[in-house]
Specification:
It is a single chain. With about 140 residues, the chain is an alpha+beta fold. About 50% of the residues lie in helices and about 20% in strands. The protein contains 6 helices and 4 strands. Helix 1 packs antiparallel against helix 3.
Length: about 140
Amino acid sequence: MKRFVLVAIAALWAIAASANPQALDALNTYRTDNGRAPVSYSKTLEQVAQRHGTDMARNGFFSHSGSNGSGLGDRLRAGGYSYCFAAENIAKGQTSLGAVMTSWANSKGHRKNMLHRKATAFGLFRAPDNIWVMVLAAPGC
């Protein structure tokens, strides 16, 4: 029953994230304010973020490595995304999009990912327990 509830909640949040242009607007405003080109939304990248966020919530961990030892590249390939650049931001505990974006903007490594010149697309997912995953990438070169 617990697994079903987590999956149902994750599905609802995924719909809200993809239906809500605020995430794209927030990231692109941050990028353009810092002299970077905007990125586009990617359903595939959102699904990769969703799988990792749900894995962390379901299995009670917080890491860039998946419960099966996967790294971001492994998860992108498994999701059918061929890439020449990829980066991942994760966060836990922030209760709003504004809070997580501020947190990432104030972190040197996360900020670097969000402003990377090679990033052309992104996906964002908020999993149960306020676990956030943002994947930024550029399709195969």
